[in-house]
Design goal:
By secondary structure, the protein is mainly alpha-helical. Helix content is 48%, strand content 6%.
């Protein structure tokens, strides 16, 4: 999904005053404001003139998709490594 919202999403988004700012996204994702600026090309956002605004519900959905992808990647990596458990021991077949 492209980081910019589509025209349809813009029309469905809350009015301008209720869109989130960089600090709101940083708080939501528990990251710094500079991290949000560095990763803005990945995070769904609106660019209104020189201002960045975020539909926080869309950012929340994006964050959940990112988390799901990362969990899948980690599970695939664990399977590739032979299914080791938390203690570093190979799991036994049942």
């Amino acid at each position: 999904m492209p980081p910019h919202l589509s025209p349809k999403q813009i029309l469905a988004a809350p009015d301008f005053e209720s869109l989130g700012r960089v600090r709101d996204v940083a708080r939501l994702l528990n990251v710094s404001r500079s991290w949000v600026h560095l990763h803005k090309h990945e995070i769904p956002h609106l660019r209104l003139g020189g201002l960045l605004r975020f539909d926080l519900a869309e950012v929340r959905s994006w964050s959940l998709r990112q988390r799901a992808r990362e969990l899948t990647r980690l599970q695939d990596e664990m399977e590739r490594l032979g299914g080791e458990d938390d203690a570093g021991e190979a799991s036994t077949p049942r």
